[in-house]
Amino acid sequence: MPEIAEAVRVVLVDTRNPLNIGAVARAMANFGFPALRVVNPYELAFREARSAVDAAPVLEAAEVFGSVAAAVADCTLVVGTTAAGGRALEHPLHRLEYSARAIRREAARAGTVALLFGSEKFGLSNDDLSHCHFLTRIETLHQEHSMNLGQAVAVSLYELVRRPAAARARPEPARPATAAENEQVTLRLLEALRRSGYVNPITEGSTEEKVRRLVRRMNLSAHDAPVVLGMLRQILWKIGGA
Amino acid sequence: MPEIAEAVRVVLVDTRNPLNIGAVARAMANFGFPALRVVNPYELAFREARSAVDAAPVLEAAEVFGSVAAAVADCTLVVGTTAAGGRALEHPLHRLEYSARAIRREAARAGTVALLFGSEKFGLSNDDLSHCHFLTRIETLHQEHSMNLGQAVAVSLYELVRRPAAARARPEPARPATAAENEQVTLRLLEALRRSGYVNPITEGSTEEKVRRLVRRMNLSAHDAPVVLGMLRQILWKIGGA
Q1: Which among B59, B169, B178, B211 would be 20 to 30 A from B125, CA to CA?
Q2: What is the mean pLDDT of residues A97-117?
Q3: pLDDT tens for each residue of B18-39
Q4: How far apart are CA B236 and CA B232, in angstroms?
């Protein structure tokens, strides 16, 4: 388990809908975050949330608290999430991309981080927010339209575990066909075109060059070149008239 | 609207649950992606999906197609999403971080990109996948446990619009208090401590230095220093005995 997933406590405050708690738990299970805390859930039966595919272990281990203060007491960094509409915020407000760095840094020095999400309808109250070191928001088109709770948690956890290096790492390229294989494809294709009457004898030289360049632009892989050769062989057999 | 949001068509193939289509539309509305296409939805009444807070315009504009080929016909890049379990894939498979770069590049040269999501239960079929240039997956803890459809779409669109620079950009720091303000806080705090009997006359010099350093470590902002001064003034008044 990555250290970031061990370090983070997802804290749901006043969540009304147990299905949403289930959706949150599922996202946590997907990204490997085990620690869920719920403050004043509207139904204590949330552990049975039906939508929680794969999320049963997270829900079973979830801890219930009576206040935000109690839920974050052992944490060294407390981060509140907000849709940040017009409300004047007295806290620093960072985009998720920036906040994730701060959270990873805290995890790297063995800190414990609470990530707070408010109720579906009202978000976090000013009282909840006063427990936070800073606030974070997911940049959306209209900040006044909040995100679905399960989606907001999924996006937040994804940002915590995403690997910037993966964006740059070239994937292993398919092994390309050799020049000899490309030339075999070229010659067979030309032969099929000749026998089909596609090639005008007067311009045959330039047609050959065009076909050769066309085949190179296809960038056939070592895997695909023999397949294409086999297709052309079969077509030549069907056309006949060698 | 960012060009990436204009360029992308979110294509849902064989989606069973209209609520999931609604959740997808909500994530699209959040991140500003207008173009939803659905292939063979199980219920044509999906446009009324109840969970679709803020998503009505996306749902109303959604286009319905009878096949994947028709849904992606005008696209210059077709990307399939997969949980990529054990199934042998004949396509290049990239992490989302990498795929997003390729999609942004295609959008930047005025291409149109289809991003395909399969049914909740079975994902995309091999036939669906054969229409794709490459496949992408969201890295999760257990690739055999798929993500919730709405959450997968939210994470994918977030990756497309996230700003790497935002992770590095230092936020505007709060204007710090001046040295004079810090010193005023220090002197008033010391006075309160003296009058309260906290300061031992024998070690008074070292206590003063300790308090001065403590106040500096608090990094009071220009906004907070007068507030703290006001508190100390009031406490000194209550203690009396100047």
Answers
A1: B59
A2: 94
A3: 888 999 999 999 999 999 999 9
A4: 6
Nearest CA in chain A to B175: A92
How close does chain B come to A95, measured CA to CA in Å? 7
CB B84 within 8 A of CB B143: yes
| Inter-chain touch A27–B151, beta carbons under 8 Å | yes
State the smallest CA–CA distance between residue A169 and chain B in angstroms.
Answer: 7
A·B CB contacts under 8 A? 129
What is the pTM (predicted TM-score) of this model? 0.83
CB atoms within 10 A of CB B84: 18
Q: Cβ–Cβ contacts within 10 Å for residue A124, how many?
A: 23
**Tokens standing for B221?**
């902002």
Residues of A in contact with B98 (CB under 8 A): 166-169, 171
Residues with Cβ within 8 Å of A227's Cβ and at least 6 positions away in sequence, in order, are: none
Taking the C-alpha atoms of residue B62 and residue A40, their distance in angstroms, rounded to an integer, is 39
Cβ contact B132:B116 at 8 Å: yes
**Contact status, residue A36 vs residue A61, Cβ threshold 8 Å:** yes
Neighbours of B6 (CB within 10 A): 14
Give the span between the Cα atoms of A124 and A233, in whole angstroms: 69
Residue type, B100: A
Query: Residue B7 region, left (φ>0) first, then alpha (ψ -120 to 50), else beta?
Result: alpha
Give pLDDT tens digits for A33-88.
999 999 998 877 777 765 556 788 899 999 999 999 999 999 999 999 998 754 55
User: What is the distance in angstroms between the Cα of B98 and the nearest Cα belonging to chain A?
Assistant: 4
- Spacing of C-alpha A137 from chain mean position: 18
Do B139 and A163 count as a contact with CB atoms less than 8 A apart? Answer: yes
Q: Phi first, then psi: what are they for A100, rounded to 5°?
A: -60, -35
Q: Is B145 exposed, middle or buried (0-12, 13-18, 19+ CB in 10 A)?
A: middle
Distance from CA of A32 to the nearest CA of B (A): 5
If interface means Cβ-Cβ distance under 8 Å, which residues of chain B face chain A?
23, 26-27, 29-32, 51, 53-54, 92, 94-98, 100-101, 138-142, 145, 147-148, 150-152, 154-155, 158-159, 161-164, 166-169, 171, 174
Q: Would you give the distance in Å from CA A46 to the centre of its chain? A: 27
Buried b (16+ CB within 10 A) or exposed e, B202-241: eeeeebbeebbeebeeeebeeebbeebbeebeeebeeeee
Dihedral in degrees, nearest 10, Cα atoms B221, B224, B225, B226: 140
Residue B4 burial (C-beta neighbours within 10 Å; 0-12, 13-18, 19+): buried
